[in-house]
Amino acid sequence: MMRAQPITEACVRMRKRVRAGAWIGVAALLFCVATTLTIAICTSMSSKGGMPMPGGWTMSMAWARLCGQTWPGAAASFIAMWSAMMVAMMLPALSRYLAAASGQAQARAGWFVLQVALGYFAVWVALGVALYPVGACLAALALCVSAFSRAVPVMAGVIVLLAGAFQLSSVKARFLACCRAAAPQSFARYAPMGLALRHGARLGWHCVGCCAGLTAMVLVIGVMDLRAMAFAAAAISGERYARNGARVARVVGGCLLAAGGVLLAKAGGLA
Questions:
Q1: Structure pTM?
Q2: Where is the signal peptide (predicted)?
Q3: How far apart are CA 31 and CA 9, in angstroms?
Q4: 151: buried, middle or exposed (CB in 10 Å: 19+, 13-18, 0-12)?
Q5: Residues near 80 by Cβ (< 8 Å), separated by ≥ 6?
Q6: What is 113-145 written as a DSSP string?
Q7: What's the confidence (pLDDT) of residue 14?
Q8: What Rg do the C-alpha atoms of the chain give, in angstroms?
């Protein structure tokens, strides 16, 4: 009887590791699918070319209707691309949380993990739904008003500079601390239906705030630019997993400040 307890504890630990490994495998598969879809959609959209605009920049077709496409269809295409992109970019930052949560001893932990993930990504999808009409209206304004179009490169440089400044701010530090401190402890308190969803939505809200600067950079550089997305995904994962995430955030902020300066210099040369 004295030997049974260590064996039982070892079995429990083994089951937790197996569950965590299974969730890591599922997350890896979902990441590969989302990344493949993102690359395929971006490549398909890029093959159609952008629209040269006054001011020396090219407007992404993500904000415009394609030939024969309705506005609801264009919005649906953008949301599909945005959702795949967000899963590919944000899943690595969430996967360790999900794997640790799935290793909890509580029964139905997997169901709670699914609710957390759904709540988390629902916030990001809602952000895409809100951003599309704004981007489409700004694109239409650039098409109709030449002066606004010529000012776009300068505005893009300013936005990237502000994104870099945000990375160095105390607001960013607070959001990042919340994201790094979020830990799946006992899922028993999330047993009532909907509480895990709200918990995931709260995590998503903190993540949206933490990634505001990088999101702005992706939108300005090009929502279909794979290089910008890869940089943002690497920065987000580094901020979450590095031993000193705050230092990573500051380094990323410095890179954004430099990029914003380059964009402004180019805009000045084109003026």
A1: 0.81
A2: none
A3: 33
A4: middle
A5: 41
A6: HHHHHHHHHHHHHHHHHHHHHHHHHHHHHHHH-
A7: 58
A8: 21
